[in-house]
């Protein structure tokens, strides 16, 4: 909602009426940042749900909240210079990778239980709980 509100505000500020795609460079930056964030959310939601369901809910929720804050930083950074958005982008990529690895660990554990009867769920939850605070390191 914040991103869409910023696009609408910038459109009205630059053009005076209605949402129009062509405007000033500030409108183009806001619109592009909004589109980038919108395209990234389906991937984020997929790995967040998989990590939470298949591995551990608490580290997945923590990483999800961190990702939302990082996307906010990316968006605000994109409004200034494009180079200001780079740290938010890289940090978001790292969080997506963490959630993806949690998903893979959950899937591997499922198949280990199914085929071999070995359950490593406690170990995986311990490891992901220990690693998730490391996401705070920039």
TrEMBL record:
A GO cellular component entry from the record: nuclear membrane
Q: Which UniProt keywords apply?
A: Endoplasmic reticulum, Leukotriene biosynthesis, Membrane, Nucleus, Transmembrane, Transmembrane helix
Q: Which Pfam families match?
A: MAPEG
What is its membrane topology? Multi-pass membrane protein
Q: Can the keyword DNA repair be found in this entry's annotation?
A: no
Q: Where does this one sit in the cell?
A: Endoplasmic reticulum membrane; Nucleus membrane
Q: Which domain of life is it from?
A: Eukaryota
Biological process terms in GO annotation: leukotriene biosynthetic process
Q: Which GO terms describe its molecular function?
A: enzyme activator activity; glutathione peroxidase activity; glutathione transferase activity; leukotriene-C4 synthase activity
The transmembrane segments are: 46-70, 91-112
Instruction: Describe the task this protein carries out.
Output: Required for leukotriene biosynthesis by ALOX5 (5-lipoxygenase). Anchors ALOX5 to the membrane. Binds arachidonic acid, and could play an essential role in the transfer of arachidonic acid to ALOX5. Binds to MK-886, a compound that blocks the biosynthesis of leukotrienes.
Q: What is this protein called?
A: Arachidonate 5-lipoxygenase-activating protein
Native source species: Rhipidura dahli
The gene coding this protein: Alox5ap
């Amino acid at each position: 909602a914040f991103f869409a509100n910023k696009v609408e505000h910038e459109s009205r500020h630059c053009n005076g009426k209605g949402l129009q795609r062509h405007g000033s460079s500030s409108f183009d930056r806001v619109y592009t940042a909004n589109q980038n964030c919108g395209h990234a959310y389906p991937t984020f939601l997929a790995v967040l749900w998989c990590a939470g369901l298949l591995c551990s809910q608490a580290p997945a929720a923590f990483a999800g909240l961190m990702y939302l804050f990082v996307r906010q930083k990316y968006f605000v950074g994109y409004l200034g210079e494009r180079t200001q958005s780079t740290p938010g982008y890289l940090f978001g990529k790292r969080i997506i990778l963490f959630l993806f690895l949690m998903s893979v660990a959950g899937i591997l554990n499922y198949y280990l239980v199914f085929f071999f009867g070995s359950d490593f769920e406690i170990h995986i939850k311990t490891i992901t709980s220990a690693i998730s605070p490391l996401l705070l390191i920039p």
